[in-house]
Amino acid sequence: MSRPQTYRTEALVLHQTRTGEADRILTLFTPGLGKTRAVARGVLRPTSHLAGHLEPFSRSTLLLVHARNLDIVTQAQAVESFPRVREDLPRAASAICGFELLDRLTEGASDGRQIYGLLLEFLRWLDAGHDPDAPLRYFEIRLLGISGFGPELYQCLACKGRLEPEINGFSAEAGGVLCPGCAKGAGGARPLSVNALKVMRLFQSGDVARAGRLRVDSALSRELEHLMRYYLPAVTERELKATTFIDTVRAAGYPR
Questions:
Q1: CATH topology for 84-251?
Q2: For 155, which DSSP code?
Q3: Where in the chain is the domain with CATH 1.20.1440.120?
Q4: How far is CA 117 from CA 89, 113, 129, in A?
Q5: What fold is seen in the domain 6-81?
Q6: Which residue ranges in the chain fall short of pLDDT 50?
Q7: Stated pTM of the model
Q8: Alpha-carbon torsion angle 104, 105, 111, 115, nearest 10
């Protein structure tokens, strides 16, 4: 269906790129169009009425004019901001990592209502919570599932047997969990603890209220991160650049 000449949409601002003296190209995610880009002309001028409503990590209502190359933002009204995500470097790093994964998994424009809701859950949890890692793991696992790349977490991918509460294997190549017997013959499979499997299943279910109440200790958090850093490149076919940014922030000793 063709886009009207002028249209209004809610959007999350994922990224901004400066172009020319006063313009910015915005990467947006909207419920109806999915991921899209638009230009905000003159937004860097002191007299611009758009600037405060188009900050990264913000939710706004936009009026856009359809153009040949990039649609043009003519009006903007901020609806919801996430100040702690924008001002706290570890939270911002987690958000940037999540957005990069989103960018990799949503190459074409499509109806994005479910992903838009997930983005809001992710940013709200990041803004309100104490730990920037758990919201990112939740977002990664849920986005993989919505995009059709979610790992199998309920039966062994090789023998199709029921997974017992013991240390199983996690294989990026196979696409999920292997029982201990099948994991022995799978090169590269990583150990998967009982608690890590439980958390991954909870995150995959999409119960953000229960997930937000979960307390994950540092050892379990590290295990989940290592598993996702092992799995995600198999799906996206390259490493996420933002993981290096997260490591740099941690090495600098920023409080979390």
A1: de novo design (two linked rop proteins) (1.20.1440)
A2: B
A3: 84-251
A4: 24, 6, 18
A5: OB fold (Dihydrolipoamide Acetyltransferase, E2P) (2.40.50)
A6: none
A7: 0.93
A8: -100
